[in-house]
Structures are given as C-alpha cells and as structure tokens.
Amino acid sequence: MPFGFGDRFALRIEEGNLDLYSRPFNYVSSMNGMYVESQRMYFIKGDGPLKNLNGANIYEAVADNPVSLDFMKKRQGLTVVQVIGALAGIGLTASAFANLEPDETPNVGAMVGGISIFAGSIWIPYFAKADLLDKAIKSYNYPELFEKYGN
C-alpha cells in the first residue's frame, strides 16, 4: 500500500516506564509533490492509552519524577526564550522601517540583525528542546542511571 498505514502497526522501540513506539507515516508533499516517509512517535505509560509523543503529553506523564520534570521545565523555559527572541527580532526588523521618509532606505543593519535574532531564537532552542525531551524520557525510564551519573 503506497500511502497511509495499511495494516502496519506501531513498533516498540524502547521498553521502560514509558514504552516508546514508532510508526511510519507516508504522504505526498503539497509543496513539491514528492513522496515523503517519516516516523510518528507514540508512548504508553503503564497500562494507559497510546499517546502522541509531544512535550505536553510527556510533561504530564513524567510529573511524578522530579528529575524528568526538571528537564521538561527547562524545555518550557526555552519556549519562552523562543517567543521573546522572535518578538525582539520582529521588533528590530520593524524598527528599520519606522519613521522612514519616502525617499529613505531602511536601516540594513537593523533588518539583518532582526532577521538573525528571529531565526536564531527559533532554531537554536528547537534542537535543545528535542534533547531535553529525550533526557526527560531517559531519566524517567532509567532513573538509577541519572541518579548515578547525572545529566
């Protein structure tokens, strides 16, 4: 079957306090019409239901583990950094166009700086957030290792 899930099931990729599952996800890109295959991640805590693996669901699932919860709180803090950085970048870029006379050119330095701040504040924390999510899961599944070796 070329698209969709057909009769394929999610594959357990890690067993622990949170069992992690992966399931192929296939689609045709609306941007370029190319066939794309990626993975959707899920988890089960105990006898609970299968849930999408995302920050909100993991935050709720690891709330009973202080180490894992600390990683998730750090992750939430990065979301705040992303929002503040993006707003600062937009503000700096907008300032390049503020109070311009019709024959004036915008301040290129402010434009480049604003765009750089915007892009950096979005993408740099993005990768750190993925790492913190992974650490929250690992510290929940293997608390003895995190107690012994730290983060």
Write up this protein.
The protein has about 150 residues and is of the alpha+beta class. It folds into two domains: about 1-55; about 55-150. It is about 50% helix and about 20% strand. The chain has four helices and four strands; from the N terminus they run ββββαααα. It has helices at about 55-60, 65-95, 110-140, 145-150, and strands at about 10-15, 20-30, 35-45, 50. The protein has a four-stranded antiparallel beta sheet, with helices on one face. A hairpin with a 5-residue loop joins strand 3 and strand 4 (about 50). It is elongated. The chain starts with 10 loop residues before the first strand and ends with a helix. Residues about 1-5 have low confidence and may be disordered.
Whole-number tally of structural domains: 2
Task: Kindly name the structural category.
Answer: alpha+beta
What would the average pLDDT be, to the nearest integer? 84
Q: Cα-atom Rg, whole angstroms?
A: 21 Å
Low-confidence parts, pLDDT < 50 over ≥5 residues? Answer: 1-7
The biggest sheet, with number of strands, parallel, antiparallel or mixed sense and barrel status, is:
4 strands, antiparallel
- What topology, given as strand order, has the largest sheet? 1-2-3-4
* Strand content bin: 15-25%
Order of helices and strands: EEEEHHHH
> What would the principal axes of the Cα set say about the shape?
elongated
* SS element count, helices: 4
Q: How many extended strands?
A: 4
Outline the fold blueprint.
Elements: E1 11-14, E2 18-28, E3 35-45, E4 51-52, H1 55-61, H2 66-95, H3 108-141, H4 143-149
Antiparallel strand pairs: 1-2, 2-3, 3-4
